[in-house]
Amino acid sequence: MESEQIRDKIIESAKNEKRSALTEAESKIILSRYEIPVVEETVVLTPADAVKAAEKFGYPVVLKGLGSKLMHKTERGLVRLNLLTPDSVLAAASEIGSSAGEDLEGYLVQRMMRGRREFVAGLFCDEQFGPVVMFGLGGVFTEALDDVVFRVAPVSEAQAEAMLDEFRSVKLLGPFRGEKPVSRKKIIDVITGLSRLAMECPDIVEVDINPLVADAAGEITAVDALIILGRRIDDTLNRRPVNPKDIYKMFSPRSIAFVGISGDVRKWGYRLLANTVSGDFAGEIYLVNPNGKDVAGRKVYKSLLDIPGKVDIAVVTIPASLILDLIPVLKEKRVRYVLLITSGFAEAGGAGVQLEKDLVAAAEDAGILIIGPNTMGLNNPHAKLFCVGSAAWPKAGSVSLVAQSGNLGTQLISFAENENIGLRAFCGSGNEAMVTVEDFMGAFEVDDITKTVLLYIESVKDGRRFLQQAERVSRKKPVVLLKGGRTEAGNSAAASHTGAMASNMRVFNAACRQAGIILARQPMDLLDLSAAFSSLPLPRGKRVALITLGGGWGVVATDQCAESGLSIPQLSADIIRRIDEILPAYWSRGNPVDLVGELNFDAATKVVGMLAEWDGCDAIIHLGVEGVESLLENFGKSCIKLQPELQGPLAQRRLEMAKLESLYIDHTIRLMEKYRKPILGVRLLDGNGKQAVRDMAGSEFKAVSFPTPERAVNALAGMVRYTRWLNREGVQK
């Protein structure tokens, strides 16, 4: 309580004096109350008093100019280091006084700190996420090397530990040129102390501790500090979260009205109807257009009010200028949900921004919930609902996908269909005027069918709610996210596309890591990670055993594993002895296990079984064992051209190899069931329409294979990152 009173008194005094910054001395008094070690120092008013203080501390000392307007002292020449005598203190005080002029209010005398390693710590307020704590390389290298890491407050000790693991210059925290390791606990105390300060004191908008010096014994001390006061940006939307039950009802309607239907195959209304009907939607379908002309032999009503039955959801494609007039009609018909395809709202800027605000106000007043506007539709294979703008009908599964870009989202569901990845649901969220990505995550969190969540994000409406919701979901199921607008050019494109500016990318990425989100780098990563997470058991660690049909792939995969933070353990003597009995004497006798080009499924089956049983690895990647059939097909074409009579025997051989490959794949699935280790494949050749995911009846797991080693390694590395996050957060899976 005393610490809080001291803090509040200092801040209140500064506010009464209309100051936006605390002095260095005031800043350190507050920081010291939050377990942040500060340098021993004293405030004096005259040069003579500075000499007395220096003699009390013992030379050498540091002398600084002090004043409420002196925030950047080094740039103004107001800092003098390593002063060894009274005369040097007096001379320094004179020089500082000349440089500071009327802004000088006194002097700060400090004990001179010795240390080769300097760090920076602090906090600032992000417009999306609020207070953010940072730690990094300090001193003169802060801006030059830009080695800093972030977390959104509040920051736990485990999250602070994770920050240090991400710090690129982490070697500086260990033994360094004869100096002892830096106390990680003390740094964690600094980070969590700043976090508490941020949460307890909303008047503070920025803290800068630079340098945070580590001495030869590894102890750290804040040598310089600055606290800025102000008003934090409250970017939290005053909207009530959407009930997950409402989102479920929107994805599982029993009746749909297409408002703005057209008989023109080029129009959105026609495309959505065609895809919905061809997907075998079993509910009632009503068509609405004021002209009343039949479409595709189906009756068209002139108004929603003419429809005799109940309408669960209206799919609207009429022009933006007519939408507000539709709201009273929807209310009278008691249509609760709207999928608004129409564009021309906030994403268009100008008058569109106000039109969207007016639409939301009218819809809220009418008790109507809108997905969109500017959306490409939604998809629920479990209900045979495929109301999207593209012709794609992925199978029912456990992956839920939300994309703020409808084009990218519909491309992804087409890829999912081609790769045999089952979807729980898809929605192009559009402008998210009423239903946001946070609302969708809230629904997926409690949905038992959803096992993996995929997100394509360009911006978030409420950063702190996004972070909190994502962390809750991650504790139950993996969340994989691709961020659009990572570069300055991409950021500008995202703003014009969605009508919302993307937040600072580094803070956004840090928030995602903090929440356990797995970040994808490109669209295909979303599908690769979804295939892995939805089909394979989670790895318990990062140790990978490799099986390869040839040496080159093994070398490449080993490099990629190392670069992705995975490890390649040495084989045990027992494993080597057992493999000696199967493979020729010239096999690699190490990890990767080189099958030396032998197209021998019996050997591959035995080796993968040994590695699955081995407690020295956590995951297995086999390269080139699958895809032999495609290799034989291509080679067979050459043979048949040379000897046409070989067509029959070669076709039979291909069938035999296909059967053996199928048995091998089924064997890997059974091994995953038994040993709970992920087993990923890389295809020798990507032919014959091979899919990424292969099912086996009655199994909770599926076989997953990729066309290249890097895609398999990236997918596994993402799973390992998720496992590490779960372990750090103490979540049992």
Main sheet summary: 7 strands, mixed
How many separate helices?
Answer: 23
Mean pLDDT: 89
Strand content: 15-25%
Domain unit count: 4
Shape: flat
The helix fraction, in percent, is 40-55%
CATH class of the largest domain: Alpha Beta
Question: What does the radius of gyration come to?
Answer: 32 Å
Tally of DSSP β-strands: 29
- Biggest sheet, strands in spatial order? 18-17-20-19-21-22-23
State the fourth-level CATH superfamily of the largest domain.
Succinyl-CoA synthetase domains
* CATH architecture annotation name of the largest domain: 3-Layer(aba) Sandwich
Structural class: alpha/beta
Low-confidence stretches: 489-503
Report how far the terminal alpha carbons are from each other. Answer: 41 Å
CATH topology of the largest domain: Rossmann fold
Explain this structure.
The protein folds into four domains: 2-111, Dna Ligase, domain 1 (2-Layer Sandwich); 117-229, 2-Layer Sandwich (D-amino Acid Aminotransferase, Chain A, domain 1), CATH 3.30.470.20; 244-533, Rossmann fold, CATH 3.40.50.261; 536-729, Succinyl-CoA synthetase domains (Rossmann fold), CATH 3.40.50.261. The chain has 23 helices and 29 strands. The strands form five sheets. Strands 18-17-20-19-21-22-23 form a seven-stranded mixed β-sheet, sandwiched between helices. Strands 5, 6, 7, 8, 9 and 10 form a six-stranded antiparallel β-sheet that branches. β8 (204-214) and β9 form a beta hairpin. The longest helix has 29 residues, at 647-675. It is flat, with a radius of gyration of 32 Å.
